[in-house]
Amino acid sequence: MGDREALKSVFLNYAERYDTKNGMIRHKIEHTFRVAALSERYADALGMVSEDVAWAWFFGLLHDIGRFEQVRRFGTFVDSQSVDHAELGADILFKDGLIESFSVEEPAQTWMAMAEQVIRLHNKLALPEALDERTRRFAEILRDADKTDIFRVIADIPFEARIGSSKASFAEAGEANPEVMACVTEHRCVPRQLRHSRFDGLIAHGCMAFELVFDVSRRTVKEEGWLRKLLSDADPSGKPVWTGREAEQLAVLRNEIEKAWGMTL
């Protein structure tokens, strides 16, 4: 499909048009390369042919192109308060023509439409039923890889550094609302419109675990330990971070994930 180092260089040249001193930009570059590597790992573990493993990596490299312009325009990664970053990224790539900067050897008609679908769908609550089998598989791999690294991002990067200008719009405290907890017991993702506080967001991010498609994804998440850290009610020293009702809700979420996965975190 093309020289990987050359493709990485094109991506970095694009990202470096933005303010790389901004931690949000730096974090997004790191996230991109991790998602690309995870996508490659998952595709390989699923027994895909080497050409498709390479495509999985490439889609991971492209998936968050829209995040850079989102930060420049709005100062946030919160789609509900700015723009759908997947749609923006797909427009930049396939409507504005950025994709032409990437030297891909295959004829455009054999991969371009699929690539655009995979990018546009990577952040949606669910995939449409009408997808063809190959596109669905690539979309599932990318979505699993993205969620896998989002657990790291949420657990390891401070809230303010992730949210940017939208931080004031989220209530600081308060237990998760009943509609959010209903998603926990029903083993499904939390729609954006139900998230009103930082704690709602924490529970919502944990609920992404229910949507992981592949066993290799779940095993990787367990091995990395980021989800376990995200759902902990104490910091590494043992000092409580969440107490009372919030700690109880975190315990419910941990138990429901373990039940859905059939394994401990």
Protein traits:
13 helices, mainly alpha, 0% strand, 2 domains, 265 residues, globular, Hypothetical protein af1432
Overall mean pLDDT stands at: 92
Helix/sheet category: mainly alpha
> What does the radius of gyration come to?
18 Å
Task: Give the helix proportion (percent range).
Answer: 55-70%
User: Which regions contain 5 or more consecutive residues with pLDDT less than 50?
Assistant: none
CATH superfamily of the largest domain: Hypothetical protein af1432
Largest sheet: none
Distance between the amino and carboxyl termini: 38 Å
**How many individual helices?**
13
Can you put this structure into words, describing what you see?
By secondary structure, the protein is mainly alpha-helical. It folds into two domains: 1-168, Hypothetical protein af1432; 170-265, no CATH class. Helices cover 60% and strands 0% of the residues. It is built from 13 helices and no strands. The protein has helices at residues 4-15, 23-45, 50-62, 65-74, 85-95, 112-121, 133-156, 159-163, 178-185, 198-207, 215-224, 226-230, 244-261. Helix 2 runs antiparallel to helix 3 (50-62), helix 7 runs parallel beside helix 11 (215-224) and helix 9 packs parallel to helix 10. The protein is globular, with a radius of gyration of 18 Å. The termini are far apart.
